[in-house]
Design goal:
Structural class: mainly alpha
Radius of gyration: 22 Å
Strand order of the largest sheet: 1-2
Low-confidence stretches: none
Shape: globular
Largest sheet: 2 strands, antiparallel
Helix content: 55-70%
Number of helices: 26
Amino acid sequence: MRPFYIFILFGFILSILFSSGQIENPDTHLRLTQTRIILEDGEFGLPEDVGEDMHGNIAINESGQRYMVYNPGQTVVFIPIYYISNLFCSNEVSAYYFSAFCVSFINYFIHALCAFLLFKIALLLGVSKKQAYLLSAFFGLTSYSFVFAQSTYEHHFEMFFILMSVFYALRNNTKNKGLLSGLMLALGLFFRTTTILAVPAILLLQKDNKSRVKLLLSLTIGVGFVLYYNYYRFGNPLESGYSLAWSLANGDKFDFWSISRIPIAILGFLFSPGKGLVFFSTTILIALFGVKTFWKKHRIMSFSVFLIIAAYLGAFSMNFAWHGSIWSYGPRYILPIIPFLYLPIIYLKPKKWVFIAMIIALILQVELISVNYKRDVLKDFITYNGLSDMKYLSGINKEPHFVQAKQLAIILPKNFDRLNNYQPNSPWKKEIRTASNEEVINSSIEKNSINFWWARVFHWKISVFSRVFSVLLLFSGIIGAFKLIKYVKRKII
């Protein structure tokens, strides 16, 4: 079986076994709602009844028009999904929430494609297929990317296009590789402007100045698009909307960017219980065993990895919301650096303890996604009538495995009883529910179902046919997993 098909099967298995079946954050709801408005009204922009200005994700221009601050990449990806849902669903409510259900499966496929690109990059660095597969397995099964793929944010697309750019930069037998490398970054800008942070690192990987010039030329496509997109919304090509949205939500309470935040934020990214990589992606510590050899054999690649890590950590550490809010899971802003942290694993000898560590780490990562992570945040929010971000993130009792184990023990018995759907009987417009916060945390499907779609279908009010089809789909994922494991044992290990 060709490696590409192995990773496609891998993506199918992950999405079937671990997708949540719902959109858990207002950011993706806002993007999907923008998709709905484009298809239903033929307009780009947000009416007054959509979104919350105080969430910091909506900006208002001088004419009073409201826009989401996000680049349109995910909104465009959602268009065919929403269009097809409209064809098959009987009403607009069903169409919206079926689209949201489908959207929840996407990121695991993108995650698997990133694992494939990491495999290809390892081969380009000169290691064996066995070592390349080992790297991809650690990244694909035990990294923060695996955990965060259950969320529906756009950061996985950013990571994917950066890896594509690195792949073309390292590929010597590709004509116009500089152009292709820059084009991948341009496509990444369509999803997140912060893709630009990877440019210095990938310029370093180009073999000559001619390739670097070609990269910059093709990159101008993405830069030009972003500048035009900003101008279209806010009349200023340099205004992304974030400063307007942050001012609208927070007033003039503090500086949005400050160098003084860097030390605390970097420590938070790495070691804080609520956001630290050592808790959400613990197996990066195993990669340390291969760092010395990786440095000796791939000096330029090592410098490039250092540049991309420094760029992301440095830039986001200056921001007042470096943590991405306590209502999002883990250090999402630095997701694109995760695959590069795992690269030294290509020089790890595949001994028995390595595979045992991988299996244990996978079990622990599955535990992290078995419960809607917002349940604990909402519980504390209700208990203390509000929350301090830094206090929540830095508390040792907020170590994610401990928190999720505690929450899993609470919700497990609830899954054998009736749970309620408190989503409004309309397409999403705001983060409102038809019950109080106490009722949501005690009896909602959203917060109390085991956090996988195949558990939620038995709480949702759907047809018997839909439930039977869901069971068959789940079994196809399980069978696929056994087939893939059998193939890996026979052909790879």
